[in-house]
Amino acid sequence: MNLKEKLVSSFLAFENKGVLDLDSNVHSIRSKAIQNFEKEGFPSKKDEEWKYTSLNSLLKHDFSLFPKTEKPIGFKNVKEFLINEIESYTLIFIDGVFSSFLSDTTHDDCDVCILSSALTRPKYKMVIDNYFNTIAKNNNSLTELNTAFSVEGAFINIPKNTIVPKPIQILNFSTGSEKEALLQPRNLVVVGENSHVQIIERHQNLSKNTVLTNSVTEIFVHKRAIVDYYKIQNDTKDSSLIDSTFVTQKQQSVASVNTYSFGGKLTRNNLEFYHEGEHITSNLNGISILNNKQHVDNHTLVNHKYPNCESHELYKGIYADKSTGVFNGKVIVQQEAQKTNAFQQNNNILIDDGATINAKPQLEIFADDVKCSHGCTIGQLDESALFYMQSRGIPKKEAKALLLFAFGNDVVEKIKIPQLKSRITKLIAQNLGVNLGFEL
Known about the structure:
Layout: H1 3-16, H2 25-40, H3 56-59, H4 75-78, E1 89-94, E2 97-98, E3 111-114, H5 115-120, H6 125-131, H7 141-148, E4 154-158, E5 168-174, E6 180-183, E7 186-191, E8 196-205, E9 210-221, E10 226-234, E11 239-249, E12 254-263, E13 266-275, E14 281-290, E15 295-304, E16 310-319, E17 324-333, E18 341-350, E19 356-365, E20 371-379, H8 383-391, H9 396-412, H10 418-432
Parallel strand pairs: 1-5, 4-7, 5-8, 6-9, 7-9, 8-10, 9-11, 10-12, 11-13, 12-14, 13-15, 14-16, 15-17, 16-18, 17-19, 18-20
Antiparallel strand pairs: 1-2, 3-4
């Protein structure tokens, strides 16, 4: 039995676990999703969207879908992965199971809780019916797979006119209780009119066992709302992540998704923005620092459907050894979306001859009164700048790291949480193999 067959057959066992309301609308969504996955299967390099990323090495594993054992995890085991310098709400999941002991949730001015509660409680039925799987539906087979097994993850519901006083941290940990584990967290974020929230998300393997995480997040940003979303991807060499995030925005809203990819065996980021009103601003920023045989694939889409909107996209990559980067950024400007400003930039540095970058910026413009641009650069470090710094007494390793840090710093500068900015700076220094000797 291959992995696809195992997952399809496991769906019946998943239903029989008793966690589902078989009469609910969500159950019918799940049933349709597993049928779609069975029909489509896993994507391959024959698919244009997966041309440069192969899942073959992952599909050979016999992943366990339901952990059979539990490993006790305390705060000391996860402390280093939290941004402890700030007060925050925290949602911590251990092997796909919510840890109330380690988490800090709230229902005071907003709902920061878990999806399983929202799916089963009548008070959230209207929210689930209106939002769940409405922008992730029919996207790709891996999203369908997540939908079929979606039962746990973060549920964040911000009412209108609310500024969430603290950032929200979402952390998914794998303990290695199974030799090969497949985790499928599902997050639903609804931000009401005139509201503001900051969210930090991380997936972390605490063991040396093989883990594949297939995560899906839906974010709904209403009128004049502001969302700042940060993804930290610095997992172990035996961990792979397929992260799909879908954002829909109403008029005059501002949504920013920032992705920092440093660790993991294979990482695929699918990020899609859909405009549903005028005067919308979308910001997509990312930096990848890879070595060994790591592989990171950033696939983005911004669909401009209304006039007078903006999108700003900046992705940078630093690739060493035999690592591989992929960037596919698509911007669609519909005929009605006049006076659109859409800017896309992808810059890459290849440190070693064995490193590879596949870049494919795309603009599909059907309107005539727009300002749109895209650019892509691929190069190496400036040897004259490196020589100049060495001539001023800076060792070659530190000079090289400083140049690389400066290359990616404009992405770091977009972080609005100072403590997170400091953490990302340290992670960059760590992945460049130096102590930069300063804080930002």
